[in-house]
Amino acid sequence: MKPDIHPTTHETTISCTCGTVYQTRSTKQNIKIGICAACHPFFTGETRFIDTAGRIDKFSQRYGSMNARRAAPKLGKASAS
To answer: Would you kindly state where each structural domain of the chain is located, as residue ranges?
Structure first.
């Protein structure tokens, strides 16, 4: 290995929000993560459904219907020029 080109590594503690703690080596110290292999649904086998219906309702309330509405043609006197 060439000297002075590699980053320094430290003993690191990785903490997840679920409470799991991992010990490893990294260039950063004391890393905090939001999801890990102990609590991720892919690894645990749990099925979590996202509230898509609630999101769609919220979008519809905010922006209205997604169907385009055509305005009735304006009928009136044509300008006589």
So the answer is: 10-63
Tell whether the model's pLDDT for residue 4 goes beyond 60: yes
Architecture of the domain defined by 10-63: Irregular (4.10)
Is the pTM higher than 0.90? The answer reads no
β-pairing, 10-16 with 21-26?
antiparallel
Q: Please spell the DSSP secondary structure of 12-80, one letter per residue.
A: EEEEETTS-EEEEEESSSSEEES--TTT-HHHH-------HHHHHHHHHHHH--SS--PPPPP--PPP-
50 with 33: CB under 8 angstroms?
A: no
